[in-house]
Specification:
binds cobalt (II) ion, methyltransferase activity (chains A, B), alpha/beta, homodimer, transferase (chains A, B), RNA methyltransferase (chains A, B), elongated, Ribosomal_eL30-like_sf (chains A, B)
């Protein structure tokens, strides 16, 4: 394979790539779009090559771009050199990144993970904000927990905005998706502490025993955990609030919980 | 005073309000724009009335809207009933909030705060992201620390995006602005622990003594604290990272630091 030059916006591959801004298309193709050389190098460092690498024909001939080209071709991916116009359309920005890539999605089922393989895991029910989800994946990676489990109707972990907020951590740890019913059916495999965070809990987050493996459950930005999921917990905790604000941003709350549960 | 009806986009007051999307105009007028009834009620609950209240003529006649109207008029503010067109232009959105308000900015100088009045404070050097800043102000409010000190060239705390992320906490605690030189000149008044967060620090954030009053110093998203500011610290700490990601989102890191320093 070699590098292909594309100048036409009506090229079918370019159309397919642009369609990855739509969740439906991402789910149908099991692909996603990542922007910028940094995240692509992060992926390569983790042994993951793009399916398609796209760069602007006036991109800097940085040695890292050459590495991305070489490794993409070696993995039998496509490499496309495109015009600035095409980059702008693909990225939907006036100042697009000069390098973009399409990767295969990797989503796990609950049955594919072993709770006992890590001390701490986090599950998010109905998380709505792409930036929050991306930031939580980044924190989960920094603390080296087992993975992030998405319960119910969550925002797509492979949206451009979420992927950007992960800062490369999207490739670093398992992302698991399940329905509420699947989570409840799987509950028996979690033999450590299953800890729900609720604003109404009586115990502080620091007083929990966090028996291993610990599963932290965080609810939606608006209304917290649903009763069905809250009922599966061994205990409920809250992060103390002593000012006027009665809640924290979800990614901040999850960060505080992850670090507390890890004893870090 | 009574309610004024406005239907023309060329009305001067409407033009002035729209100009508040620009930092220069916010700084010249010392005003800012807040969106949504919730944040306006948050302000009223804290004894702060809008200078201008704006609502759509087809807004729900919610008792809280009536309260906002009454309290704005009582405080000699203006109340404007406007068309949906005008709301869209003011908010720059297709689905605008039906209630908006203009408030006076309140920014403190370092000399106006008493370090000994609270156990913990946070200072941010050159914070760049409006969402991060708003989220940090919200966390600072939840933990009831003394205030948020902005050092050097920071993003505007009164941008629409920052104000939105504060979820009403923008009114709850002092926001202080200073130059790097002013901060260094004021350093002597901080007689507890001045703790800088640096990725290169040797000590963990949990091992710090946090002598009162504690001032936490957080650097910019890209490159951390500048040497000049890092040199003013009594000690440097880092939040442990044990995965692949070598840093946290700034608002998450600041949240973990604030909760650790407060002993919460
Ligand atoms: Co691991
Ligand atoms: Co206070």
């Amino acid at each position: 394979m070699s590098i292909k030059q594309i100048t036409s916006l009506t090229n079918q591959t370019i159309k397919d790539i642009r369609a990855l801004h739509m969740r439906k298309e991402r789910e149908a193709t099991k692909q996603f779009l990542a922007e910028g050389l940094k995240i692509i190098i992060d992926a390569l460092d983790q042994g993951i090559a793009p399916q398609i690498l796209i760069y602007g024909k006036d991109a800097d001939h940085h040695p890292l771009l050459q590495r991305a080209i070489d490794e993409t071709l070696k993995a039998r991916g496509q490499v496309l050199e495109v015009t600035r116009d095409i980059l702008e359309k693909i990225s939907r920005k006036e100042n697009p990144q000069m390098v973009l890539a399409v990767f295969a999605q990797r989503i796990r089922r609950l049955s594919e993970i072993d709770p006992d393989s890590h001390e701490v895991w986090v599950a998010l029910e109905q998380v709505r904000d792409p930036g929050n989800l991306g930031t939580i994946i980044r924190t989960a990676d920094a603390a080296a927990i087992g993975g992030v489990i998405l319960i119910g109707d969550c925002v797509d972990p492979f949206s451009v905005e979420t992927v950007r907020a992960t800062m490369g951590s999207i490739f670093a740890l398992p992302i698991v998706k399940c329905t509420r019913e699947e989570f409840i059916a799987d509950r028996g495999r979690w033999r450590g502490s299953v800890v729900g965070t609720l604003l109404t809990a009586k115990h502080d987050h620091r007083s929990a025993p966090y028996k291993r493996p610990t599963l932290l459950l965080m609810g939606t930005e608006q209304s917290g955990l649903t009763p069905d999921i809250a009922n599966t917990c061994d205990l409920h905790v809250k992060i103390p609030m002593r000012g006027r604000a009665d809640s924290l941003n979800l990614s901040v709350a999850t960060g505080i919980m992850i670090y507390a549960a890890c004893g870090l």
